[in-house]
């Protein structure tokens, strides 16, 4: 089974993504999704020598629910800032967030989470992948923003990935 699906999580993600993009569960869509879910991981396995070890897959579900909730709340906060806060009171900041994640996939997931959340953006990785440069639309206390990213997202990703 490992020969057909060298990266089962990638295959599942590709299958789901294709079906969501197609917007249909027709036979053609399902067959195309299955073909992509098998072929892409097979053709790219040489570029993935080490698969990420997910220690607790169910915690990934709760992480995704947390991120979805945070995106909703951040949209409301950003709308409030843009619509009601005078421009002179907006305190944008560049924040360096030191990270200690076990694999590049976890680091990428953290960077994507930050970028998906309105009001923040991952601008750069350090050369050694031990820090992220984040831009925050409104961060009156940059240290608190950094600490929140570490406690809210990084700590959960550390528990999910080995």
TrEMBL record:
Query: Which superkingdom heads the taxonomic lineage of this protein's source?
Result: Bacteria
Membrane-topology descriptor: Multi-pass membrane protein
Where is it localised?
A: Cell membrane
Q: Which residues cross the membrane?
A: 63-83
Which UniProt keyword terms apply here? Cell membrane, Membrane, Transmembrane, Transmembrane helix
Q: What InterPro entries is this protein classified in?
A: Cation_antiport_E
Which molecular function term from Gene Ontology is one that the record holds?
monoatomic cation transmembrane transporter activity
Q: Name one Pfam family in it.
A: MNHE
Where does it sit, as one GO cellular component term?
Answer: plasma membrane
Q: What is its main location?
A: membrane
Q: Which PANTHER family match?
A: NA(+)/H(+) ANTIPORTER SUBUNIT E1 (PTHR34584), NA(+)_H(+) ANTIPORTER SUBUNIT E1 (PTHR34584:SF1)
The entry sums up its family as follows:
Belongs to the CPA3 antiporters (TC 2.A.63) subunit E family.
Give the protein name, as stated in the record. Na+/H+ antiporter subunit E
Organism from which the protein derives: Cypionkella aquatica
């Amino acid at each position: 089974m490992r020969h057909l699906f060298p990266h089962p999580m990638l295959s599942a993600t590709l299958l789901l993504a294709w079906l969501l993009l197609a917007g249909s569960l027709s036979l053609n869509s399902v067959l195309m999704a299955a073909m992509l879910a098998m072929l892409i991981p097979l053709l790219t396995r040489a570029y993935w020598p080490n698969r990420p070890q997910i220690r607790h897959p169910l915690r990934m579900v709760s992480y995704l629910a947390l991120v979805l909730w945070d995106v909703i709340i951040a949209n409301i906060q950003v709308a409030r800032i843009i619509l009601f806060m005078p421009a002179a009171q907006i305190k944008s900041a560049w924040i360096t967030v030191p990270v200690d994640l076990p694999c590049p996939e976890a680091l990428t997931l953290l960077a994507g989470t930050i970028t998906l959340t309105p009001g923040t953006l991952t601008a750069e990785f350090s050369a050694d992948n031990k820090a992220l440069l984040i831009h925050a639309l409104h961060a009156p206390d940059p240290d608190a923003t950094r600490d929140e990213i570490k406690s809210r997202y990084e700590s959960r990703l550390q528990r999910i990935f080995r």
